[in-house]
């Protein structure tokens, strides 16, 4: 019989042997020693603030890499994206492709920029992209759009909560007018009501144009929130602008069936001969792998079933100026891999939480704009295409990694490339 929690028990036992009780208390107690390295309180970018911060940091070697000549010349470009600026970080970028996409919005062959420090990652996506392209491309379809913010209101009783809801559902036109007065691009499309005892959660859903839109919907909902607190006939005991029902930057089961950001599906059918040529395995074996790992995912309590959407999303989001923290929610989705009746391979991905935009946020920063320009997807009118490209990229990654496991190449590739 295996010993359960053996490592945890031994670790705590060793900790007690290495550190006495008084030493542990001394290490973990609050410290009121003088504060060092306190920098200028102003969060803004200007030369005076930069000089002050680097003088306090007192690390010329770090400054040489983070605040190089090019960064000094372009630092004003970052003033709307960061506070307490000290420089920029350089990440290696590779491209995966050509990735052929036959979508509603994305049409053509794409070289997809990926920023990562993980060896073998771009090579894997490149292999999947080439396989899809040789098979005629992936079909991709944007299914839905919507970004939510969810204020919460607490009342003394369920009766008061019901009275509040009865009033709130009559106010949609006013809410819409107030919300849309804060933005040129955002549109309030729907409001859903959730009652939990004497608590009420209002789910405000917006269309955000070509922006990812999280700041947009926060500002718009805050204006409505203030209107509600001023006008409601039933005053809440307390209320908050967001009550954690939106799924913002966290894995959430509810959006698996609905949408947050952009919901996209992509599919491809690949002849068995191409599977053998590119992945060195068979459709049958890949379908068996998918069946076993679907059960494994269910046993582990995974929300959705996929191999590694997060790898594609993190690398693409960083390269193209998206909010990288949104990978937490965007990486939810479903992958299906099956053998067709003709013996070929069918594969699809569905991602209901793609938080992507081609305007606003970090999309206009120099390097990130350059990456979107490489895709031909910077600016107004391209966010839907970017979402379809993202889904097809995830599909390429699923095919490649599943093929690697089935052919027994997964560890070998990392050993070869992660040298």
From TrEMBL:
PROSITE patterns this protein is in? HMG_COA_REDUCTASE_2, HMG_COA_REDUCTASE_4
Q: Which InterPro entries match?
A: HMG_CoA_Rdtase (IPR002202), HMG_CoA_Rdtase_cat_sf (IPR023074), HMG_CoA_Rdtase_CS (IPR023076), HMG_CoA_Rdtase_eu_arc (IPR004554), HMG_CoA_Rdtase_NAD(P)-bd_sf (IPR009023), HMG_CoA_Rdtase_sub-bd_dom_sf (IPR009029)
Instruction: Tell me the enzyme class.
Output: oxidoreductase
Signal peptide stretch: none
Q: Which domain of life is it from?
A: Bacteria
Supply the SUPFAM superfamilies for this chain.
NAD-binding domain of HMG-CoA reductase (SSF55035), Substrate-binding domain of HMG-CoA reductase (SSF56542)
Q: Which CDD domains match?
A: HMG-CoA_reductase_classI
E.C. number(s) listed in UniProt = 1.1.1.34
Give UniProt keywords alphabetically. NADP, Oxidoreductase
Family, according to the entry, reads as follows: Belongs to the HMG-CoA reductase family.
Protein's UniProt name: hydroxymethylglutaryl-CoA reductase (NADPH)
Which organism's genome codes for this protein?
Vibrio hippocampi
């Amino acid at each position: 019989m295996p010993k359960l929690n053996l490592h945890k028990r031994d670790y705590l036992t060793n900790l007690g042997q290495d550190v006495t009780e008084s030493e542990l208390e001394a290490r973990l107690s609050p410290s009121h020693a003088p504060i060092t390295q306190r920098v200028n309180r102003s969060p803004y970018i200007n030369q005076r603030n930069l000089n002050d911060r680097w003088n306090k940091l007192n690390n010329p070697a770090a400054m040489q890499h983070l605040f190089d000549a090019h960064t000094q010349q372009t630092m004003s470009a970052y003033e709307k994206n960061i506070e307490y600026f000290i420089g920029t970080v350089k990440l290696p970028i590779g491209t995966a492709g050509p990735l052929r996409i036959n979508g509603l919005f994305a049409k053509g062959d794409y070289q997809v920029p990926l920023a990562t420090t993980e060896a073998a990652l771009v090579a894997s996506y490149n292999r999947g992209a080439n396989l899809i392209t040789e098979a005629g491309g992936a079909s991709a379809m944007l299914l839905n759009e919507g970004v939510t913010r969810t204020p919460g209101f607490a009342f003394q009783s369920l009766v008061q909560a019901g009275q509040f809801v009865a009033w709130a559902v009559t106010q949609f036109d006013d809410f819409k007018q107030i919300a849309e007065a804060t933005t040129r691009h955002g549109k309030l499309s729907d409001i859903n009501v959730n009652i939990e005892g004497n608590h009420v959660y209002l789910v405000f859903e917006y269309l955000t144009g070509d922006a990812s839109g999280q700041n947009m919907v926060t500002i718009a909902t805050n204006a409505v929130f203030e209107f509600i607190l001023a006008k409601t006939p039933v005053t809440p005991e307390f209320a908050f602008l967001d009550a954690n029902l939106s799924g913002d930057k966290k894995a959430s089961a509810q959006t698996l069936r609905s949408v947050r950001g952009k919901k996209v599906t992509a599919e491809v059918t690949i002849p068995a001969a191409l599977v053998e040529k590119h992945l060195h395995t068979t459709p049958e074996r890949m379908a068996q792998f998918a069946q076993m790992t679907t059960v494994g995912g269910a046993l582990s309590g995974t929300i959705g079933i996929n191999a590694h959407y997060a790898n594609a999303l993190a690398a693409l989001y960083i390269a193209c100026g998206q909010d990288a923290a949104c990978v937490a929610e965007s990486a939810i989705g479903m992958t299906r891999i099956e053998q067709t009746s003709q013996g070929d391979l069918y594969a699809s991905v569905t991602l209901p939480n793609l938080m992507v935009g081609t305007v606003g946020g970090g999309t206009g920063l120099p390097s990130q704009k350059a990456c979107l320009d490489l895709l031909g997807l910077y600016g107004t009118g391209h966010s839907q295409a970017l979402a379809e490209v993202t889904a097809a990229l995830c599909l390429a990654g699923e095919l490649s990694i599943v093929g690697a496991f089935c052919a027994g190449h997964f560890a070998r590739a990392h050993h070869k490339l992660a040298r």
